Amino acid sequence: MEIGGLSRVEFAFPGPLRDQLVAAILSGAKTSTSGLVVEYERENEPLPKVGQQLAVVDSEDRPVAVIELTELRVLPLAAVDLRHALDEGEGYQSVAEWRAGHESFWHSAEMRAELGDPGFTVNDDTLVLAQRFRLVRAVRG
């Protein structure tokens, strides 16, 4: 589904976590995000590209912002650095905190259902897509 000619991007699943992440994007606190490469592979989707603009949607599936990808790195989970963790805008103070929070999300029932694998787990070698972006504009309803 495209919004205004832009591909949409969802942060987490609809609900409190998405609301928190969208608010952090709109405030400028969140300038990076992490995804699993396996999500793209499972959906047979190409990885996003630097310079691509995306429409951020809220929990009600409404476009709320446009972001532009400024840096993309595919790296093993064990190689995620502190700068990336801090720039996620979720209050992490260390890579260990970031990893614990993300493992909890990636091991959730919702994520396992999305991946079609009830026993899905990540490890140090799991490939992560570390994305850096900038807020282009907020979208007013």
UniProtKB/TrEMBL annotation:
Domain ASCH residue range list: 11-137
Coiled-coil regions listed in the entry: none
PANTHER family, sorted: CYTOPLASMIC PROTEIN (PTHR39203:SF1), CYTOPLASMIC PROTEIN-RELATED (PTHR39203)
Protein name: ASCH domain-containing protein
Organism listed in the record: Planosporangium thailandense
